[in-house]
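Customer escalation, tier 2.

The customer says the design service returned an amino acid string that "doesn't look like it belongs to this structure." They asked us to rerun it and document both sides in this ticket. The original structure tokens are below, unchanged.
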């Protein structure tokens, strides 16, 4: 507060000095803010370059792995067909082991390649009209050889009152394949049941319910993140990238939908995906 005895000239000089100090402080603050913005821009660019490099690396390595994997599978098929001579029972078992390992590695490579494509924005969505009965029939045929001879029944409930969908059936099938494959891995006995139902006007829910080991609640939120796996004695003998459920989430988002699960240890799990009957932004005729 100014002194009452202070002259007008002295008060004006003091106010000017205070204003100059304030301007200097503001200038210094502005320089700090600009420097911070520049640093953030630099870090954002570095993160973008790192993300691009990771995507290119994943894509390159995935493509490079495919050629030798294809060769291994082709050679195993030739040997198993005994075109170069008969094999004994033990040799057939060894060929089956090599074939299964190569197929598992091939599936991991496919997951990495899909992840690279999604992060690079190179995934193509191709919507078309299709009927749920056809999708379930294709999935049933695909998993029949895997489920036969196990203590687990794979059940596809016939979809009732489900409208035709206009979306990418291949991406939807990939989501359900991942759900079903995981359910079969973690279910030692009982059943895996696949259903479709109307969730709300314009939405359909696809569920895969199992009688497997179940998943602790604290893992639910993390399970759809990249490279996340359930920690259990059963998991230790099962191989995977931990990308399957993450890709399901990403594919569901590309289809305008969402994924989720309901589970508790010892009570099995229900994995589900809810998608619009018509892909958002599309004008479907048919």
């Amino acid at each position: 507060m100014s002194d009452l005895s202070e002259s007008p000239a002295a008060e004006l000089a003091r106010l000017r000095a205070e204003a100059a100090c304030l301007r200097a402080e503001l200038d210094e603050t502005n320089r700090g803010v600009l420097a911070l913005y520049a640093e953030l821009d630099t870090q954002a660019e570095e993160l973008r370059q790192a993300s691009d490099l990771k995507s290119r690396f994943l894509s390159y390595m995935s493509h490079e792995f495919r050629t030798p994997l294809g060769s291994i599978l082709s050679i195993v098929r030739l040997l198993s067909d005994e075109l170069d001579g008969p094999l004994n029972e033990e040799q057939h078992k060894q060929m089956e082991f090599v074939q299964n390992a190569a197929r598992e590695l091939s599936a991991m490579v496919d997951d990495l390649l899909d992840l690279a494509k999604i992060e690079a924005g190179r995934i193509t969505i191709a919507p078309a009209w299709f009927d749920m009965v056809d999708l379930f029939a294709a999935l049933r045929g695909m998993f029949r050889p895997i489920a036969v001879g196990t203590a687990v029944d794979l059940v596809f409930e016939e979809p009732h009152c489900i409208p035709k969908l206009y979306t990418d059936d291949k991406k939807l099938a990939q989501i359900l394949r991942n759900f079903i494959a995981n359910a079969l891995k973690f279910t030692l006995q009982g059943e895996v049941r696949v259903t479709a139902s109307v969730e709300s006007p314009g939405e359909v829910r696809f569920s895969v319910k199992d009688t497997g080991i179940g998943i602790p609640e604290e893992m639910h939120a993390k399970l759809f993140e990249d490279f996340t796996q359930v920690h259990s004695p059963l998991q230790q003998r099962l191989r995977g990238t931990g990308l399957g459920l993450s890709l399901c989430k990403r594919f569901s988002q590309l289809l305008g939908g969402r994924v989720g699960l309901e589970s508790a240890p010892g009570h099995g799990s229900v994995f589900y995906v809810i998608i619009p009957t018509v892909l958002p932004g599309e004008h479907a005729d048919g």
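Tier 2 assessment: The sequence is consistent with the input. Helices lie at 8-80, 89-119, 132-147, 169-185, 244-254. Residues 128-276 form a domain with the Heat Shock Protein 90 fold (CATH 3.30.565.10). Sent an explanation to the customer and offered a walkthrough call.
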